Amino acid sequence: MRHGARAPSSDSTGFPVYGGQLTPQGMRQRYLLGQLNRQKYVDQYEFLSSKDEIYVQTTSYDRTFQSAFSELMGLFPPGSLAESELLTQTQLNGLNTNGRGMPPMSIRNANSINVELGRNPLPNGFVSVPVFNFQNAAIIDDINMGGCSYVNKVDSYTFPADSTYTSVDYLVSDLSGPIGTAFGLTQQEQQEMTFMDLYDYCDIIQCREFQQVPLNYTYNADQLSEINQTVLATLMLPLENPILSRNMYVSKQIRSFLDKAIQIIYPQTVTAEASEIKYVLFSAHDWTVSQHLLFLDAANGNFTNLPFASQVNYELHSTDSCTDASCFWVEVYYNNVV
After folding, report:
1. What whole-number distance in Å separates Cα of residue 69 and Cα of residue 130?
2. Helix, strand or coil for residue 182?
3. Is the separation of the CB atoms in 283 and 75 below 8 Å?
4. Separation CA 45–CA 182 (nearest Å)
5. Considering 195, 197, 212, 322, which has the largest number of Cβ atoms within 10 A of its Cβ?
6. Which residues lie across from 312 on neighbouring strands?
């Protein structure tokens, strides 16, 4: 899943948060996604019954952490704690004044706070779901590019290189003028604009336009289209060649789904104790989601941009009385469309 709406990384003027951070609108987007996925996987399918059946991982960005926690608030809303997640009477007794369960310092109004919370660990029965992350490159990290050294080397070289974007370098000449006017650039700065410079400005424009922050310029429809094309080029072209880099990146991300599918379809082949994890959530970026659409050659993947809070879902289905591999199938959704 892509994180929710954020402030531009290079210029957060007009936004209520620092550059690159999730905005209040972005938090709401991912909370609503959590509600949608709860309606589907908890209420409709009755597939999930406990937070212990879900694994959540995020990349090393504040906005993806914030997005994951926002979505989990919707997926497991406050007040849905299981009995085992509530404080016991013994633990409550330990929260009395000078009790062993209290922090080792004086806290004003501690007794009234404890009475108000009752057995809930946190206000409103907030459900705490762990979110995992790899701080350093590791082969078992399936969403960060650093989890595959080959993919990481390819992207680190191709993403910032102007040579990657020679097929769309006309975008620089088309947009340098209006962007120069909007951002007060000198003639020399417009003439020396690189594709990466253009991308940074287009990212600012997209973030502002989506969240209705003043643009300081009125772009026409063709210019807005080319702004989207600029950002799209940075999603499509860096891992286009060699093609195996994209295949490796995506196949790593879906391997946990495939492993679980094999355990379910061919239970006789499972030698170790099967994991109780049934739902894996990766909180990531537009460059993550877009690779799935390109890898699958999705019919609904002919996108002109990739909106904030977009998601790709892989689901394993079977008939009610399924007894062999022939009655299983996989459905893949992009933004809730097959």
Report:
1. 9
2. helix
3. no
4. 50
5. 195
6. 334
**In angstroms, rounded to a whole number, what is the distance separating the alpha carbons of residues 153 and 159?**
10
What pLDDT does residue 97 have? 79
pLDDT digits (tens, 9 = 90+) for 21-67: 999 999 999 999 999 999 999 999 999 998 999 999 999 999 999 99
Q: Residue 103: exposed, middle, or buried by beta-carbon count in 10 A (0-12, 13-18, 19+)? A: exposed
Does a cis peptide bond (omega within 30 degrees of 0) precede residue 242? Answer: yes
Closest among 199, 202, 204 to 7, alpha carbons compared:
204
Phi, psi dihedrals of residue 174, rounded to the nearest 5°: -70, -35
* Tokens of residue 163, six digits: 């040579």
**Residue 92 corresponds to which tokens in the numbers above?**
């409550």
* Average pLDDT of span 328-335: 95
User: What's the longest Cα–Cα distance across the chain?
Assistant: 73
Q: Contact 85/45 with Cβ under 8 angstroms?
A: no
Question: In terms of pLDDT, which residue wins out, 308 or 324?
Answer: 308
Query: Quick check: 233 and 165 in contact, CB under 8 A?
Result: yes
CA distances 123 to 131, 260, 294, Å, are 20, 35, 43
| pTM for the whole structure | 0.92
Dist. CA 232–CA 235, nearest whole Å = 5
